Amino acid sequence: MSIDESTAARVAKLARIKVEPEALPALAQEFNTILGFIEQLNEVDVEGVEPMTSVTPQKLRWRADVVNDGDQQTKVLANAPDAREGFFAVPKVVE
């Protein structure tokens, strides 16, 4: 698969990235390089390889599922520019 300049421009537009027209050939080449790496990965034989979630086998630790309020209201509101009665105070935006 090969990416041309028009496809690179479309991808940039879909990603909401502004790309100047003179930069499109380089972007298309970068996309083609990335696709080349992906094609190399597709050639690797992974038959019989166990999927893994980490490089070291480990079990996740469980914690008790307890509902609490976090008890950090003062810490959270300490950085607020305006806090009143234990809540964030924001300017009124709707009349």
UniProtKB/TrEMBL annotation:
<keyword id="KW-0547">Nucleotide-binding</keyword>
<dbReference type="GO" id="GO:0050566">
    <property type="term" value="F:asparaginyl-tRNA synthase (glutamine-hydrolyzing) activity"/>
</dbReference>
<comment type="function">
    <text>Allows the formation of correctly charged Asn-tRNA(Asn) or Gln-tRNA(Gln) through the transamidation of misacylated Asp-tRNA(Asn) or Glu-tRNA(Gln) in organisms which lack either or both of asparaginyl-tRNA or glutaminyl-tRNA synthetases. The reaction takes place in the presence of glutamine and ATP through an activated phospho-Asp-tRNA(Asn) or phospho-Glu-tRNA(Gln).</text>
</comment>
<dbReference type="GO" id="GO:0005524">
    <property type="term" value="F:ATP binding"/>
</dbReference>
<keyword id="KW-0808">Transferase</keyword>
<dbReference type="GO" id="GO:0016740">
    <property type="term" value="F:transferase activity"/>
</dbReference>
<dbReference type="GO" id="GO:0006450">
    <property type="term" value="P:regulation of translational fidelity"/>
</dbReference>
<protein>
    <recommendedName>
        <fullName>Aspartyl/glutamyl-tRNA(Asn/Gln) amidotransferase subunit C</fullName>
        <ecNumber>6.3.5.-</ecNumber>
    </recommendedName>
</protein>
<dbReference type="GO" id="GO:0006412">
    <property type="term" value="P:translation"/>
</dbReference>
<dbReference type="InterPro" id="IPR036113">
    <property type="entry name" value="Asp/Glu-ADT_sf_sub_c"/>
</dbReference>
<keyword id="KW-0436">Ligase</keyword>
<keyword id="KW-0648">Protein biosynthesis</keyword>
<dbReference type="Pfam" id="PF02686">
    <property type="entry name" value="GatC"/>
</dbReference>
<dbReference type="InterPro" id="IPR003837">
    <property type="entry name" value="GatC"/>
</dbReference>
<comment type="similarity">
    <text>Belongs to the GatC family.</text>
</comment>
<dbReference type="GO" id="GO:0070681">
    <property type="term" value="P:glutaminyl-tRNAGln biosynthesis via transamidation"/>
</dbReference>
<keyword id="KW-0067">ATP-binding</keyword>
<comment type="subunit">
    <text>Heterotrimer of A, B and C subunits.</text>
</comment>
<dbReference type="GO" id="GO:0050567">
    <property type="term" value="F:glutaminyl-tRNA synthase (glutamine-hydrolyzing) activity"/>
</dbReference>
